[in-house]
Amino acid sequence: MKNLVLLFSIGGIALMWVSRNSVTFNICNQIDYSCRTTLDKIENICFFFPFLFVFSVITYLMPARVFKSWWKFARVATPLILLGSWVISLGLHHSPGGFFNMDNNFDLLGLMIMYVIFVVGSLIQIWRGYQ
Question: Under 8 Å CB-to-CB from 17, ≥6 apart: which residues?
């Protein structure tokens, strides 16, 4: 399972990198707004994968009981965060821009809260794995 989680996180980081450099890789043209917008949404969803990668590397080097303790939390948190990131990237909850473009700030705040919960929860689970 350790290898699978590590490969999944590396694949997500690769997808984020390709989405970010879509014009460089000739996936989208510079003037193709709809293609770049779609890949920007994929990139925004994939921002979570570096967090998953860091904790999978940390727990990869630790005893199996620590990884299992962390994975009990991460296997629930990861799909929820990816789903939440996807819902936020759809932009269905507000009109683009909003009042003084504040909606984008609330989107960022929502993502940051999810990421902080993941980091703190992961650290707690890793610590509990050593108990």
Answer: none
